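re the bet — no i am not wrong, look at it urself. input seq straight from the record:
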Amino acid sequence: MTRNALSVLRLSLIVVLVLVIVGYSGFQASKIVSGPVIEVFSPSNGSTYNQALIEVEGKARNVAFLNLNDRPIYTDKEGYFKEKIILSQGYNVIKLDARDKFKKYTEERIEVILKEY
């Protein structure tokens, strides 16, 4: 190979390496930029129940603090949570809120109804 071809090959490899590093950094930074995320599996919004004790299940990502009706709850290593709560008669609002280590905040509200039991 000529000296010019080696220079072009070397420059191409450096450009590819820089693009890979920038792409990976952007992918990892997207988790920080997006802030906390709460995904609720159960109960679904608008559900009706006949028993007062229900279980709230879901997954939280990128959170440092997670609360259920202003009470701290905890997740496992993968971010899943499962908590039992007692509903009041009639209309209930279940509030899940989360904050990440950069103080970004998100909130999910689930409305459920407890019929007479």
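see?? Helices lie at 3-34. told u. also The radius of gyration is 24 Å. so pay up
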